[in-house]
Amino acid sequence: MDHNSKQNIIKGEASLGIEFGSTRIKAVLIDKHFKTIASSSYEWENQLIDGYWTYDLKEAVKGLQETYRELKQAVQNQYGVTLQKISSIGCSAMMQGYIALDQAGELLVPFRTWRNATTETAAAVLTEKFRFKIPQRWSIAHLYQAILNDEEHVANIDYITTLSGYVHWLLTGSRSLGLGDASGMFPVDQSARQYNEEMMGQFDELIADRGYRWSLKSILPKTYAAGEYAGYLTEAGARLIDPSGSLQAGIPLCPPEGDAGTGMVATNSVKQRTGNLSVGTSIFAMFVLEEDLSAVYPEIDIVATPDGSPVAMVLANNCSSDINAWLGLFREFYEAMGLKADTSQLFSVLFNKALDADADGGGLLSYGYYSGENITGFAKGRPLFVRSPESRFNLANFMRTHLFAAFAALRLGMDILTQQEHVRVERILAHGGLFKTPLVGQKMCAAALNVPVSVMPTAGEGGAWGMAVLASYLVNKEPGQPLANFLATKVFGDEAGQEVAPDNADVKGFSLFLERYAKGLPIEGAAVEHLIENFKK
User: Fold this and answer.
1) What are the tens digits of pLDDT across the range 145-191?
2) Residue span of the signal peptide, if any (predicted)?
């Protein structure tokens, strides 16, 4: 037992980060030295309902309560202390998407997540109007598409927000959002640290003939930079998290953030010329820019760090879902043989097989498209594995192919930054569950992106730990201390993570795979067109 951590708990000096990821709701409690005291998680899944990817927000509350209950029990078991007072709390979640509430705070339509590719017309119109890339995932694209579709609920909107903003509102009653997450709702003015006023005016003019009682500014959450107080835990919020009644109200909350922002914090990548990679159901790379890009690119989003610096973001909608599905199949076989499967061992054994593969994956091809893929131009997806009679079909090549496929769409987007905009990428700091198996994910990633990849010791904790650090920054920073300085001097020190450089043979192998991947995209297109979407049991 760590005595310092126990004293932090007793004195109420620990900070809590809660992140609503695509497959898990996770909580991490850290002490004043940013060491994890306890962590817990709750699994949940999105659903495709009436053509929209969504999550049940009632399950979000249930998951929050279950995650906190498990965390509280872990603290009790290890330290013999009942968790009552916490120094600070932060909520983060999948960025973007669309949550619309009426004046009573009731949900007007089911939560529309970032995964939906249903706003093509709106995104195109707004991109041209603003002369600024508006991705289909962004909240403003969802709102404008609902307007173009004449959806009745739009007239009754009182507030729109993201998932992190919604949970924060439940806990505090405050309509707040961190700059990073806000930059995925609507373009922000980095110098003013708020939404772009000119573009908001342009939007209001665009919909003036609709006669809505609201203006855009009136229904968006207020923006806050990292380190600013964004609300306090209400009595109702405390009971929402902890129905047992132990948790005290009045705890300050930092600005709620998106998973991109917490990824930047977890990898110490908020300074200019730094980059980070976040791997999960989706995959995105982010580079803090020194200057604006010379053009608007469909494949590149411009967002912000939690403290407001401009960031070029390349996001592919699909990454690890297909790998997880295949691992599930191997688990079934293992258990059908009468053996008990250990998840960590299963991942470790199968991932390490990829190191024995042919450099290019043996002529195999995979598209893990569970949803549409913006970078390659697909509105819908079909997970697909293809081989020719001449392909070298074995387990090692099978695993390497799926790992390469997880990075392929991202690489196509990154090439724009490196080849057309000449953005220098000296190394990438990565985090996410794919890197829990030592070295393998890093090695495949370094080959795919042709850049050294470092993984921090906190890689497995990911965004929830990064959110806890942002919560700690709120109450433990020195007066006027910038976030980058806080991370560099207090959180990470000289820790650079374990770096893996690209292997020349692997880089050449991935180049062959990527050529095959690009040429095979019509195969994916045919699957989308001809494979029916709904199967009846």
Assistant:
1) 999 999 999 999 999 999 999 999 999 999 999 999 999 999 999 88
2) none
- CATH class, range 321-455+501-530: alpha beta
Which residues, at least 6 apart from 486, have a Cβ–Cβ distance to it below 8 Å? 473, 477, 478
CA atoms within 13 A on the CB side of 415: 10
pLDDT, position 248:
96
Whole-angstrom CA distances from 278 to 315, 407, 463 are 9, 11, 9
| Confidence class for position 1, pLDDT limits 50, 70, 90 | low
Q: Could you tell me which of 343, 345, 310, 304 has the C-alpha nearest to residue 324? A: 343
CA atoms of 122 and 149, how far apart (whole Å): 10
**Structure tokens, 224:** 């806050």
Tabulate helix, strand, coil % of the chain (nearest 5).
40, 20, 40
Please name which of 250, 508, 477 lies closest in space to residue 359, comparing C-alpha atoms. 508
Interatomic CA distance for residues 153 and 379, integer angstroms: 24
pLDDT digits (tens, 9 = 90+) for 196-245: 999 999 999 999 999 999 999 999 999 999 999 999 999 999 999 999 99
For the chain, the structural domain boundaries read 321-455+501-530
In the chain, how long is the greatest CA-to-CA distance?
Answer: 67
Q: In this structure, are residues 231 and 55 in contact, taking their beta carbons and an 8 Å threshold?
A: no
CA pair distance 300, 317, nearest whole angstrom: 13
Per-residue pLDDT band for 247 (boundaries 50, 70, 90) equals very high
Band (pLDDT 50/70/90 cuts) for residue 535 is low
Please, how many CA atoms are within 13 Å of residue 364, restricted to the half-sphere of its CB?
24
C-alpha 357/C-alpha 47 separation (Å) is 35
Tokens of 451: 């850049």
